């Protein structure tokens, strides 16, 4: 049941919303239970068997959280419980997501390990709900959790707008909202704002991302010998496809949650306007960045810092500005974090290369900040040519995205070779003519239009802020809502195309 | 009692709701008026006219397409019917090699390519729009039992994308948006391993006219579909109020897409390949029977396996054993035009002319071998 499918929009969502507010008027607890149940129905619509896995995961992790709570005064047992929970969660994730690709990879290299059964189907959203809950347990271990009711926990873990592909939620952002009674009461302003955001996301996904998919899919399915213009068209088409697809999905998720009076953190903030890679990661899949920073990068930096302090070495900004200090306190944790971030996206060397490339970019960016001479006047450092920064950042991201999309490292290198002109400079008319609208010039125009949109237009959050500030007459408001409804109907009428991030 | 502030807020919300409804009606009416399909079914609608009409029920679309006379009806109405398409006399008294080809538009394009490559060969085509192998097989059986086919070579073209239609009896249930109203039998395997056919009761455009003008016969036809057509959905088939509005038609189209995709997915296994018994068991049997019947009547059977974009590797696993065991000659499109290579296609999804020439050339190599054999026999 995709967010843009007719069954979701015209059956599931209206029933879920109406029942939620009816239950909410009677009892917030009943409304919360209803939301958990409807999230279960939403998840089971893909494959009912995986509902068992989701329920097991939620119950098990909640039980672990209670155990951690029980052992709060006994640090060794508390840590052992957390370690046990982490191992079980990661083992399940490894089994479903990595084991069979790994066995396949080993088999292609002549190493045949005995295993029973065929390749398993990856349960949707397993990475998202696993990491969301692991974050909760880690914070429970740190003693920072206040909200402990099961229904609220289950709602935090399974609330359907974020269940399949995020945003990755932090309990501190969400669980307090479930403790408020007003969350369960109809709020027309939130409903309207949520609807606007949802429609923006739907339009991004349906009218932009899905229409770029044929070019991206076509080029990446035929990486060998791809010529320069075709390779660039394919890479750029994918770059915009994944942005409009994932940010569209995120807008829809945030909008849906808002309809239920739940405020999700935003996940995208015009990432292609970023002037550096550090800036990019503060704008792209922001909740993943926060998660990686909180649960991987910061602990690694802390660990290194403690070891350095134990050996009498400094951990100050000045220490970081030395080659050895920078290597141990920035570069190593960064490569470690981004390598894991790459692998988190999937089993395949190309994902590891994607992560390592970003680790390299970020390290270089941090080195530039740490080692460059300090600006003499405030603001002077930021007055350099920003277009150069935007272009350099975008091109760096594009190269990494080629690895992210390609079926293998070899395929990615072929595409990059094509982009460098190694396979010819001519337009492959036989290829382009098979794709509607059939002309390289029109495709180039579409890509140019995408650049104009991402660089020249406000993003969803900015549009929503403007919208909320405008008071229209009832006639104009009616026309706007009718237009939004038309966009929803238009979006739901076409063939549903799965969101790219569902595979992760 | 509500405060004045609350009351004015409520009033405003009510006014907004009212104006939203009014605006929806205006948009709906305007789109309906702007993009009305031409009243004459022989006139091809524009892309936008077709787009806003995709969600109309099958019954509604058929009523718009069918006129009392075949010539006044939409061209698609008369295409592919087995009784009229396949029951033909094809005398081949030219002395040249005669070839009959059964299939759909992909086979039709191969026929054109063969004619260009070797104009001396006499080629007869027996096609249905998007016709599945069950249509092609039934057409072949009809043509041969009718006794009119004198061509030495019998070719059946199997396209991978048409296989889901092996679960249907009507060319509209898998093609809700653009119905092709011809019918064909559905085959299942009996306990003895032989084919059991369900022959549809509607067999011609005139039959269609009859059921559309008689509510009882229409309901009987829907009951027949319900029992024999895996893709049949009553709410998408029967005309209702949803047909009257552009917006509800679009919603209905969305549901049609959802249902069609869900059912299509159930025909495939976890590995993405076809797994439904009525496809994986029946298709080899159809091809085996085709070869046997052709040989029994002194003709040479050839199979063309056509895998389109997105269907690479779908056909060979289903037919490899049968082709080998029954020594059936075949041409596999994937050997010449890999299915996943976009460069092999035209923008309408068919193979490009160059691709058709490659496959037709391979096919002619087999066919010419036959011609050599005839020449040797005559000597």
What does this structure look like?
The complex is a heterodimer of chains A (504) and B (379). With 504 residues, chain A is mainly alpha-helical. The mean pLDDT of chain A is 89. Chain B folds into 2 domains: 73 residues, no CATH class; 301 residues, SGNH hydrolase (Rossmann fold). The longest helix of chain B is centred in the N-terminal third of the chain and has 31 residues. The chains are: A mainly alpha (504), B alpha/beta (379). Chains A and B meet through helix 1, helix 9, helix 18 and helix 21 of A and helix 1 and helix 10 of B.
Backbone shape of chain A: globular
Query: What is the end-to-end distance of chain B?
Result: 108 Å
The total count of strands of chain A amounts to: 0
CATH uppermost class of the largest domain in chain B: Alpha Beta
What does the average pLDDT of chain B come to?
A: 89
Biggest interface between chains: A-B, 38 and 37 residues
- The helix-and-strand class of chain B reads alpha/beta
Strand content of chain B: 5-15%
Please count the helical segments of chain A.
21
Q: CATH superfamily name of the largest domain in chain B? A: SGNH hydrolase
Helix content of chain B: 40-55%
Radius of gyration of chain A: 24 Å
Secondary-structure blueprint:
The complex is a heterodimer of chains A (504) and B (379).
Chain A lengths: L5 H21 L1 H17 L3 H23 L4 H34 L17 H17 L7 H9 L1 H4 L7 H8 L9 H34 L6 H32 L17 H5 L4 H25 L6 H4 L2 H23 L3 H23 L14 H20 L3 H11 L9 H5 L6 H17 L3 H10 L4 H20 L11
Chain B lengths: L3 H31 L12 H5 L6 H8 L16 H4 L12 E6 L1 H13 L4 E6 L5 H14 L6 E7 L26 E4 L5 E4 L6 H9 L1 H14 L5 H4 L8 H21 L10 H4 L1 H15 L3 E7 L9 H10 L3 E4 L20 H26 L1
Parallel strand pairs in B: 1-2, 1-3, 3-6, 6-7
Antiparallel strand pairs in B: 4-5
């Amino acid at each position: 049941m995709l967010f843009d499918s007719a069954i979701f929009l015209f059956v599931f969502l209206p029933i879920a919303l109406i029942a939620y507010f009816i239950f909410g008027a009677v009892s917030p607890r009943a409304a919360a239970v209803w939301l958990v149940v409807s999230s279960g129905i939403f998840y089971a619509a893909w494959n009912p068997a995986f509902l068992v896995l989701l329920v097991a995961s939620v119950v098990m992790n909640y039980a672990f959280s209670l155990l951690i709570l029980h052992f709060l005064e006994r640090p060794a047992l508390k840590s052992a419980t957390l370690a046990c929970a982490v191992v079980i969660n990661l083992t399940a994730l490894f089994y479903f997501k990595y084991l069979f690709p790994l066995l396949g990879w080993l088999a292609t290299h002549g190493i045949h390990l005995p295993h029973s059964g065929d390749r398993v189907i990856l349960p949707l959203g397993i990475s998202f709900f696993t990491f969301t809950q692991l974050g909760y347990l880690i914070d429970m271990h740190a003693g920072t959790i206040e909200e402990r009711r099961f229904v609220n926990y289950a709602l935090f873990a399974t609330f359907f707008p974020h269940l399949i592909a995020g945003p990755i939620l932090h309990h501190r952002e969400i669980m307090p909202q479930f403790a408020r009674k007003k969350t369960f009461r109809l709020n027309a302003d939130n409903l309207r704002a949520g609807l606007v955001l949802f429609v923006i996301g739907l339009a991004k996904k349906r009218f932009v991302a899905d229409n770029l998919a044929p070019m991206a899919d076509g080029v990446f399915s035929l990486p060998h010998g791809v010529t320069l213009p075709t390779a660039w068209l394919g890479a750029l088409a994918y770059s915009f496809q994944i942005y409009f697809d994932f940010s569209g999905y995120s807008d829809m998720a945030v909008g849906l949650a808002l309809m239920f009076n739940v405020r999700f953190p935003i996940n995208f903030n015009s990432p292609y306007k970023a002037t550096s890679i550090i800036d990019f990661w503060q704008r792209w899949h922001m909740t993943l960045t926060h998660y990686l920073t909180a649960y991987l990068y910061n602990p690694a930096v802390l660990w290194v810092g403690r070891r350095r302090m134990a050996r009498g070495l400094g951990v100050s900004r000045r220490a970081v500005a030395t080659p050895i200090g920078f290597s141990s306190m920035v570069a190593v944790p960064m490569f470690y974090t981004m390598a894991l971030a790459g692998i988190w996206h999937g089993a395949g060397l190309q994902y590891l290369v994607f992560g390592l490339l970003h680790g390299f970019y970020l390290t270089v960016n941090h080195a530039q900040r740490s080692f460059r001479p300090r600006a003499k006047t405030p603001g002077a450092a930021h007055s350099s040519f920003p277009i150069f920064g935007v272009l350099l950042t975008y091109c760096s991201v594009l190269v990494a995205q080629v690895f992210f999309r390609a079926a293998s490292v070899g395929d990615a290198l072929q595409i990059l070779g094509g982009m460098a002109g190694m396979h010819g400079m001519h337009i492959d008319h036989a290829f382009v003519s098979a794709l509607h609208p059939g002309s390289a010039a029109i495709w180039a125009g579409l890509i140019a239009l995408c650049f104009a949109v991402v660089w020249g237009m406000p993003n969803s959050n900015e549009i929503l802020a403007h919208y909320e500030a405008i008071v229209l007459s009832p006639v104009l408001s009616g026309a706007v809502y009718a237009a939004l409804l038309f966009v929803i109907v238009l979006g739901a009428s076409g063939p549903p195309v799965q969101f790219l991030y569902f595979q992760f | 009692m509500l405060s004045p502030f609350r009351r004015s807020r409520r009033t405003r919300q009510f006014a907004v709701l009212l104006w939203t409804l009014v605006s929806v009606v205006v948009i709906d009416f305007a789109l309906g008026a702007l993009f009305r399909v031409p009243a004459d079914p022989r006139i091809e609608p524009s892309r936008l006219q077709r787009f806003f009409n995709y969600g109309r029920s099958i019954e509604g679309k058929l009523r718009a397409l069918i006129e009392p006379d075949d010539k006044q009806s939409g061209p698609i109405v008369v295409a592919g019917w087995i009784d009229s398409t396949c029951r033909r006399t094809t005398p081949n008294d030219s002395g040249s090699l005669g070839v009959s080809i059964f299939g759909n538009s992909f086979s039709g394009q191969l026929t054109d390519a063969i004619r260009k490559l070797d104009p001396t060969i006499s080629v007869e085509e027996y096609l249905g729009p998007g016709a599945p192998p069950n249509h092609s097989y039934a057409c072949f059986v009809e043509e041969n039992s009718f006794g009119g086919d004198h061509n030495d070579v019998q070719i059946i073209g199997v396209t991978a994308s048409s296989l889901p239609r092996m679960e249907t009896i009507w060319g509209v249930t898998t093609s809700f948006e653009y119905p092709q109203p011809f019918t064909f039998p559905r085959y299942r395997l009996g306990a003895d391993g032989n084919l059991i056919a369900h022959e549809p009761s509607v067999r011609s455009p005139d039959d269609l006219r009859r059921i559309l003008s008689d509510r009882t016969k229409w309901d009987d036809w829907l009951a027949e579909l319900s029992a024999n057509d895996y893709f049949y959905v009553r709410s998408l088939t029967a005309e209702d109020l949803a047909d009257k509005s552009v917006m509800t038609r679009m919603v209905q189209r969305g549901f049609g897409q959802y249902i069609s995709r869900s059912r299509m997915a159930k025909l495939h296994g976890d590995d993405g390949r076809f797994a439904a018994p009525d496809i994986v068991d029946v298709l080899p049997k159809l091809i085996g029977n085709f070869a046997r019947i052709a040989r029994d009547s002194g003709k040479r059977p050839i199979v063309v396996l056509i895998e389109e974009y997105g269907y690479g590797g779908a056909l060979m696993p289903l037919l490899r054993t049968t082709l080998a065991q029954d020594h059936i000659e075949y041409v596999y499109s994937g050997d010449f035009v890999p299915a996943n290579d976009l460069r092999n296609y035209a923008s309408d999804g068919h193979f490009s002319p160059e691709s058709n020439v490659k496959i037709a050339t391979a096919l002619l190599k087999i066919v010419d071998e036959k011609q050599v054999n005839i020449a040797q026999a005559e000597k």
